[in-house]
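Q: I'm building a small set of examples for a reading group on sequence design. Run inverse folding on the following structure and report the sequence directly after it, with nothing in between.
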């Protein structure tokens, strides 16, 4: 079997060269060359032949406008010039509103009328984008909101963040789709390959795509250790091995940030998540939901989950996002954790992360931890389902007021609060004496220093035409397509693969587009009896156990085994009844139980995000599956129920152990 995409080694080399950019210690301020300035409403000051943006409009060069100074010096100067309200605006991370959309989504772009008061009156300068537009339009929309920020009193540029945009799995609040970008397997696919160089190559390509459309912050990677097989967010992790997660997480951070030693000027700041223990959710019930608000771990288990973050921290990730649940049981350093969600835990954030592990970057809370959990959040019904505006994850602090929650989070060590635009409550916390202005200043300096390092105070604007050209570049798409093929895992093969289309041309399909098979040179038939073989693509099994909860209705829960009545399993039985050989190709976004599939399928080819064409190339021997399972596949649901949610790969007598693959 040969590789259908030549030049992969050269592509990988180019991407890795991009990943290892100038070290973060080389200050932009020290660069001898005049940086390009982006202007829409402010003017230029010229000093000794050098040009600077007059962001405060006073006609003089103030220190924060002087790109020759260090980010730290510029941030300290700017903080001294800010009002209390302007400082409060830095400490919330909102959502850029979309025209006619929900939670920032829109096919038309940003609602500039709605964005203007957020930027000009509440002084918010950090926002997540949920747009999925072609690259040139994304760039134009980024420029439009940056122009609003430039016209403000101090001209502070926006930091625009994004959930992962380059994969297959899309759930609002966890992963987005994006038009035109390179499409790669989920992080589980990179874990199946186990190659840090490939992760860095992906991240370097994605970094260029983000910056081309005006995105500066990645709300990723998710290095949570995948220890509970029913958990619906496993697909976004590197699997169940803490050491592998650490190595690949470090590679991801280095590639996105542009340096293995911290954030480079052309980098995208990573926010590694979720600190720590999120993968141990009992029964897999996610902590976005009230019914999943608690996770239980021993001290040793928590330390194993923490170890998965080591590589990302060593690579100098600019940000860390605490997890949602109340972590019950462990005593790191001999201290019991507080009975709050992790975003409010001083033990986890300050004692362990900052003091013990030396983290100096930004601590950004996950979304909704300051919001009230109403009845639609606690116990939604068919008549009153949970809506986006009902989302809250204020676990353990429900009895506190919103200003008290802000005060408690800052006392724990947070710098910024995600998913809120409530600057009034933060100001109320200061005015009530719950937070000092000096404490605000500490976090504001951290947040502003990143903007300075990324060059946003010189030029926050991007070129729409260049964005379209950069994202359409074929080299990155070719490497992404190759990775989709290589990251698949051949679990079983009774002499069927690779198939020779000259001998087996007629195929009966389930879960695959007929056009893809036709393009691969196969003839699609209507029934198994007419076919030379059957090819069945399947999702991992799941149940809809909490359909009225916003995330419960969108994330997978419940069983992992295929049962009578499941459409893919019925297709498998139909093909076997016709006596035709079968290739079964499951998408393992969770560790499916395949016990009753193994005897009926002639080959099981698992993937973690792959196009129909990528699956067909492996089936037909035009590409080779090189992956190994990044977690075990349990033998039965009884074994799943009996295992410890906080312990990796501990089910009894697994059908396939972690690392399996032909």
């Amino acid at each position: 079997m040969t590789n259908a995409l030549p030049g992969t080694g050269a592509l990988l080399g180019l991407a890795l060269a991009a990943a290892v950019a100038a070290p973060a210690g080389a200050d932009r301020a020290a660069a001898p060359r005049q940086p390009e300035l982006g202007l829409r409403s402010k003017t230029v000051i010229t000093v000794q032949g050098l040009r600077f943006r007059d962001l405060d409009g006073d006609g003089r060069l103030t220190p924060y406008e002087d790109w020759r100074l260090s980010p730290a010096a510029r941030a300290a100067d700017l903080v001294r010039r800010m009002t209390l309200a302007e400082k409060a605006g830095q400490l919330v991370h909102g959502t850029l509103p979309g025209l006619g959309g929900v939670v920032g989504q829109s096919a038309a772009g940003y609602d500039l009328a709605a964005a203007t008061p957020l930027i000009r009156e509440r002084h918010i300068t950090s926002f997540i984008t949920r747009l999925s537009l072609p690259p040139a339009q994304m760039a134009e929309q980024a420029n439009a909101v940056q122009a609003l920020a430039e016209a403000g009193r101090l001209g502070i540029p926006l930091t625009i963040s994004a959930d992962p945009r380059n994969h297959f799995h899309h759930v609002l609040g966890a992963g987005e789709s994006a038009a035109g970008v390179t499409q790669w397997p989920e992080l589980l696919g990179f874990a199946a390959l186990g190659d840090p160089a490939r992760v860095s190559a992906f991240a370097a390509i994605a970094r260029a795509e983000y910056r081309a459309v005006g995105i500066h912050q990645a709300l990723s990677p998710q290095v949570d250790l995948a220890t509970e097989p029913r958990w619906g967010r496993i697909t976004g992790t590197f699997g169940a091995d803490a050491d592998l997660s650490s190595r690949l997480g470090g590679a991801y951070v280095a590639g996105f940030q542009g340096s293995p030693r911290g954030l480079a000027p052309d980098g995208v700041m990573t926010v590694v998540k979720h600190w720590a223990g999120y993968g141990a959710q009992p029964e897999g019930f996610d902590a976005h939901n009230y019914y999943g608000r608690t996770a239980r771990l021993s001290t040793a288990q928590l330390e194993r989950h923490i170890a998965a973050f080591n590589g990302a921290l060593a690579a100098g990730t600019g940000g860390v996002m605490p997890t949602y649940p109340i972590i019950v049981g462990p005593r790191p350093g001999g201290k019991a954790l507080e009975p709050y969600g992790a975003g409010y835990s001083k033990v986890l954030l300050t004692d362990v992360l900052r003091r013990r592990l030396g983290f100096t970057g930004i601590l950004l809370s996950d979304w909704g931890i300051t919001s009230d959990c109403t009845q639609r959040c606690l116990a939604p019904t068919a008549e009153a389902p949970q809506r986006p505006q009902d989302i809250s994850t204020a676990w353990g602090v429900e009895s506190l007021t919103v200003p008290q929650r802000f005060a408690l989070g800052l006392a724990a060590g947070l710098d910024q609060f995600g998913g809120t635009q409530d600057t009034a409550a933060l100001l109320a916390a200061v005015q009530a004496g719950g937070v000092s202005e000096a404490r605000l200043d500490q976090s504001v300096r951290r947040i502003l220093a990143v903007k300075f390092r990324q060059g946003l105070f010189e030029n926050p604007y991007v070129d729409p035409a260049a964005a379209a050209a950069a994202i359409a570049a074929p080299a990155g798409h070719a490497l992404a397509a190759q990775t989709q093929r290589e990251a698949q895992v051949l679990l079983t093969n009774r002499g069927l693969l690779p198939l020779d289309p000259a001998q087996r041309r007629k195929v009966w399909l389930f879960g695959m587009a007929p056009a893809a098979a036709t393009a691969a040179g196969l003839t699609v038939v209507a029934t198994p009896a007419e076919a030379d073989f059957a090819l069945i693509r399947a999702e991992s099994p799941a149940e809809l156990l909490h359909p009225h909860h916003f995330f419960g209705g969108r994330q997978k829960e419940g069983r992992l085994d295929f049962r009578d009545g499941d459409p893919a399993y019925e297709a498998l039985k139909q093909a076997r009844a016709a006596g035709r050989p079968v290739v079964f190709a499951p998408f393992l976004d969770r560790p499916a139980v395949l016990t009753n599939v193994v005897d009926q399928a002639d080959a099981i080819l698992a993937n973690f995000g792959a196009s129909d064409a990528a699956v067909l190339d492996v089936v037909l021997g035009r590409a080779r599956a090189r992956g190994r399972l990044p977690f075990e596949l349990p033998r039965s649901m009884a074994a799943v129920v009996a295992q410890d949610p906080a312990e990796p790969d501990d089910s009894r007598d697994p059908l396939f152990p972690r690392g399996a693959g032909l």
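Residues 370 and 405 are 6 Å apart (CA to CA).
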